[in-house]
Amino acid sequence: MTIKLVVIGGGSSYTPEIIEGIILRHHSFPVTEIVLVDIEEGNQKLEIVGQLAKRMIEKSNKPIKLSWTLDRKEALKQADFVSTQIRVGGLTARSKDERIPLQHGYIGQETNGAGGIFKALRTIPVLLELARDVHEICPQAWVINFTNPAGIVTEALLKHSPHKKVIGVCNIPYNMRYSTAEILNTKPKNVMIEFIGLNHYVFGRKVFVNGVDYTSEVLTKVSQGLDYSPANIVNLGWSKTFIEATSLLPNPYHQYYFQTAAVLKKDKQALEENGTRAEVVRRLEKSLFELYKNPDLCDKPKELEERGGAFYSDVACSLMDSIYNNKADIQTVNTLNKGAIPELPEDSVIEVNSVITKNGPQPITVGALPNSVKGHIYQMKAFEELVIRASITGHYKDAYLAMVMNPLIGDEVGSKTLLDALLEAHKDYLPQF
Amino acid sequence: MTIKLVVIGGGSSYTPEIIEGIILRHHSFPVTEIVLVDIEEGNQKLEIVGQLAKRMIEKSNKPIKLSWTLDRKEALKQADFVSTQIRVGGLTARSKDERIPLQHGYIGQETNGAGGIFKALRTIPVLLELARDVHEICPQAWVINFTNPAGIVTEALLKHSPHKKVIGVCNIPYNMRYSTAEILNTKPKNVMIEFIGLNHYVFGRKVFVNGVDYTSEVLTKVSQGLDYSPANIVNLGWSKTFIEATSLLPNPYHQYYFQTAAVLKKDKQALEENGTRAEVVRRLEKSLFELYKNPDLCDKPKELEERGGAFYSDVACSLMDSIYNNKADIQTVNTLNKGAIPELPEDSVIEVNSVITKNGPQPITVGALPNSVKGHIYQMKAFEELVIRASITGHYKDAYLAMVMNPLIGDEVGSKTLLDALLEAHKDYLPQF
Amino acid sequence: MTIKLVVIGGGSSYTPEIIEGIILRHHSFPVTEIVLVDIEEGNQKLEIVGQLAKRMIEKSNKPIKLSWTLDRKEALKQADFVSTQIRVGGLTARSKDERIPLQHGYIGQETNGAGGIFKALRTIPVLLELARDVHEICPQAWVINFTNPAGIVTEALLKHSPHKKVIGVCNIPYNMRYSTAEILNTKPKNVMIEFIGLNHYVFGRKVFVNGVDYTSEVLTKVSQGLDYSPANIVNLGWSKTFIEATSLLPNPYHQYYFQTAAVLKKDKQALEENGTRAEVVRRLEKSLFELYKNPDLCDKPKELEERGGAFYSDVACSLMDSIYNNKADIQTVNTLNKGAIPELPEDSVIEVNSVITKNGPQPITVGALPNSVKGHIYQMKAFEELVIRASITGHYKDAYLAMVMNPLIGDEVGSKTLLDALLEAHKDYLPQF
Amino acid sequence: MTIKLVVIGGGSSYTPEIIEGIILRHHSFPVTEIVLVDIEEGNQKLEIVGQLAKRMIEKSNKPIKLSWTLDRKEALKQADFVSTQIRVGGLTARSKDERIPLQHGYIGQETNGAGGIFKALRTIPVLLELARDVHEICPQAWVINFTNPAGIVTEALLKHSPHKKVIGVCNIPYNMRYSTAEILNTKPKNVMIEFIGLNHYVFGRKVFVNGVDYTSEVLTKVSQGLDYSPANIVNLGWSKTFIEATSLLPNPYHQYYFQTAAVLKKDKQALEENGTRAEVVRRLEKSLFELYKNPDLCDKPKELEERGGAFYSDVACSLMDSIYNNKADIQTVNTLNKGAIPELPEDSVIEVNSVITKNGPQPITVGALPNSVKGHIYQMKAFEELVIRASITGHYKDAYLAMVMNPLIGDEVGSKTLLDALLEAHKDYLPQF
């Protein structure tokens, strides 16, 4: 019995996270082979990360075969799991996603805002090609998609590729469980949150500790300033009024929608002080790779945690473990709705608690959305559909619709100006336009 | 055979419009009695308008009995039609609806924005009381609701009063047909527009002249600057990009959502120059009532047209005519969805082409909403539901949700500040809070 | 300005009906050319009917060009309307549709029962081919489908052919209006029935005379034995209990579902006495064609009325007239649901009151189905989908599902026996199997 | 920490099953108190069963307090679980449910057919009263409803009582898993079946063994004659054609719908030979109670298994265990749909795999129903709604609709005759009529 994992974008600075995760779970999820795959431009990073991974595995003494390559098709042969953590255009593109909108007076969010739209437009065609390869070369493999905007990308793959074994993952739901556990003085594994909504637009409707309802305790603490943001998001806090009126646990990304002016101000200030997040990350990465090169380093360095992707490895490994072992436990993933949220199309991808078996995730019903947020959730899904459509057709008019129907942009004139600027800036990575 | 029409808010400056409409259609829709009803505060205006209406009818030689009164219950006896054109709190309240949001940096729109929310909160309880009276005193009567926000108010009445014979009307759809006819050099009666959406959020999906599709001609002209706004809205024009991408005919109120910054700027400037629209209207009304007092005036004065309600009378009289004569013609009204727009709840009120018979309106199916705007239309409906809920419960938290989920407000902190200011300003007319 | 009508199956004994209808409406719907089309096997009948039609037109003095041909593609050039009244396999096939089920103890109904399933299986591929020709040769033309099972066939065309201008018609709704008018002593044009459901499974929910509700009067009379069946159906009457409990006006075909045993007995008896309906019709047709041959006959002979298709001509001509003249009047047709009945798929074909314009029918909303019959209507639609699927795939298993899920068959073993017998009997006309 | 279980209908011959189940699971689900409740007429049985239960518990040495009483309200105090296993009218009523329909030529099925309708009409009012008591006296308690027709009764309670903690259970799904395990030579706990549909109308869509798909193996074996019926149903086998065409695993009750004639014949024959099932059960019960009286009997007697309720105890205890221990495992229960089957109303009760926690069941999404059976499942649900409505209103016309819209009855005249006979026979237990 073998388990082969292929990591697409294997030269990423995140890779040591996932290597560590695989090593730590080896008793229950005994991966036998890992292949790190990257593209020509990432060759150097791939070499550095590959060597570090090799040292980590050697130190662990686990019987895991490791290799790294630029030949994706070769790597995919016999794969059981394919994880994706790519960044089309690299941090340079991300920097543009963040900087150009800010220059036009809009939030340059790399997931749901204008930046996120362009990240999707660049990424979807590349991952569709991957999905087609997977379907041909290793149709039995599960694709675990980390790549943002994870919900949009996963829906695009499920709707437009022949490969249907695709699951989107994000660390936000786990982050929320973790932070909630912290303020309730318990362990994350005891905490169950009823999540409703979409990736980066998910709310917690109920919080249970060992089955007992602690929702109101948690909401009270959140309205008193609990910070449960990941490292890459500065929390602005939530007003008591908002929390009491919605009776929902927001996720860190909700600040973009309900604290727009404050976030815009904060982002502009940050830009002046440190450059955009992409630029901060570039510096972080640079020093991380310096660390990685050290031939004495045989562990994931502590500094990686500042990078912002905490728990990504946990989320991914735990998902693969449950699939492999047919655990039928409950995890929060991005998968087809199938009626779980009756207001959304059955073939939408939602972020939802799901039972995970060897056959993948099956969502647990959410039931009717709360009146307070059903309008926004539906609108975000409709916006996501417009993004996917634009990424496939490459029509200017479809991309414009995605911009003008995004709640962070919306202005019929401003949308065009910003769209034109971003299309120009990213043209090398948008062959479909 | 008698036809009795009761005009609630009969002291309004609009009344001569409706009187003229009744006189002009008397051959097909022979109203036998009109009663103008108003409240104590409107007594003086009622007297002036009543006298003018009396002179108009006398001049027309039509056998219409006219009276005016403050006794609503008495007036409702044997009524066949009850039209509502009230303004709870008068122009003073409207002025606050417009001025206070502007002071906080938000559009003070009296229908869908913060102003509109408060107009709904003040109006719904008063009209629910009227609807209950109608149901008891003249259950056979049709209530023709002109009162803004007309869609929200009509849904509130249909959901929360026992009286189900309520139809909401607005002059915007007719205005759009009229303007379209103008640019196509034809008569409005030859023009049919497929309307989709909600009151003040309705789009035209197709334009037909005598059954022939002229949609693209109209869209082209609109993107070249066609102005089809009613007198009370300054059109900012629509970009070619927006029109081409949506392939939809926007209504004049869409500028609030897609040209927010420009409108805000324009409104602030207008405020400085002329005060808010309420204040302009107050001056207009003052001079109108001076005209009305003239005992030699026996016609609707031309100056009334500047008031902005063009076609209201046409819309209302034409609707009552079709009901009375079981015409089975098609008119655009606000009525229960019943599946016409499958994405919206069946008991939502939508603005929709409907077949009008003695049994009221039956909507013609719209079918699936265009992907481009389905998110926004759904969100607006969800927002409207929040407003209705707040108007019924009087809970602070429900009013807050209506504010924070409105696309023109949205900020979790700003919503509260603005809400508090408006609740304080309007407290005399919000007994439920 | 020309109007060209192509009649597919022009050699049918019904053709004089439609010729008469065209002549009578020539003032408002001035057809300029009629082409009767048939297949080789119908050549002789076509010649007879063509000659009669020619004499009728000559007598009428209307400027209508008439021809008949076996060359369908040639005939379709420049067509504006294409009507279909074909019978694949002729009366011989119909006789099998009726006789074989009866031999196995099932109703041999030629529309919804086992017979109807096989009529659909034989007909759909042939009409799909026609629809593809129409789409290529005269894409502007409206196809008016008379061919039974009209609802199923129309849905098959709308789902599986590129041509979307297809309308299904049936004389049952008009028949119901006509009979209702008779018992209420008024004219059919004054009667409006709210129809709900599917072709041959449609109910009347409300009956209005000039907009006044006469539903309970009509229901009372129906439960007292009113017969409003067309000539080809012997009415068994409806019990007071059934009518009161459902509060709905059944159509003549409902006896197959709610009076199954009695109908089966009646059909078996009729079979012994006169043979199946097909055989009765064959004799009728024989004598009709004898009449048609008479060179002095220049009118539709009275004897045609016994044939059972009363009003078909009226229904079709009235539909084409409203399309041509953009009348926006209301007619009952088989067209896409689009939410009119929210419980059924949006792309289902339903039988529904629709506004008829130059752009075809747009259904008026029906709203939620009555609880009493929603289960049956939904099930019939699901059954119809199975029939369509089988007609396209030609899979044995799909045909079996259509049989076993039909409420008149249903038995898992009996369905197979009957299916095998019918497949064998009709194999010449089922190339897809 | 205490756990109190109240058994309504505690004098039933089934009670030793549940007592044994509680004893066997005491290590993980430590019940501290059991109260058996019955009505005056059941007093004698209650005493016998109570004494046996007492001996069983004593022998087990578990610290469980046991009592029995006719005072339901007293018994409910502090209850944590309330199980219901009542039979309004006793076996005499059941005998009529079975015998009278057979006399009229209909299947006398005690769950979905005419018998089932009357069982529902008698039972729902009694259990609604219980649910109201529970809600007042022990609102924290979960009601575990065993009483047939379990799906209909559970929906009635969830829709019409204030108590929302109600779960319906049936042994059929477990039976199917058990039988499937047997033919696959594995243990039931390794088998997972994707169930779709309604109580006694549930299908298995997929069968997994430890996550591996064995559906086609199972279907093949079923079509070769696998018998997986409970003791109270004689399996007639399923044809290969039916199994292949539907690709679904039927449940034993499906024979009533798809093998109607054969079942009717079998039932009539059984009636002549042994009387109805009720009469067989009465004899069984008589001998069981003779056994129960034996003061030396301290265990559930083996003979109870012939009674037909195998696994009931397992199903119920396992459900309570998972609730108590917040297990988040998956069990098949009757609970609110919430979108799990998108074609059915969100507030329908369906039989569905659900995650069981301290907060009750949350269904796992089923997704779109198979085209082959969606019509029948929808129709059965619509029929169930009619039964519930009739049980609440007590209107003759509603009961008639339930009869005439049931697929096993359906005839408009026969429905009335049978209805009248059953109403007369059961009048003492139908106070609402």
TrEMBL record, chains A, B, C, D:
CDD domains: GH4_P_beta_glucosidase. The record marks 110 as: Increases basicity of active site Tyr. Keywords: Cobalt, Glycosidase, Hydrolase, Iron, Manganese, Metal-binding, NAD, Nickel. It comes from the Bacteria. Substrate binds at residues 94, 148. GO terms for biological process: carbohydrate metabolic process. InterPro entries: GlycHydrolase_4_CS, Glyco_hydro_4, Glyco_hydro_4_C, Lactate_DH/Glyco_Ohase_4_C, NAD(P)-bd_dom_sf. Binds 1 NAD(+) per subunit. Residues 195-409 form the Glycosyl hydrolase family 4 C-terminal domain. PROSITE patterns: GLYCOSYL_HYDROL_F4. One of its GO terms (molecular function) is metal ion binding. Its cofactor is NAD(+). Mn(2+) binds at residues 170, 200. Belongs to the glycosyl hydrolase 4 family. This is Diacetylchitobiose-6-phosphate hydrolase. It comes from Virgibacillus pantothenticus.
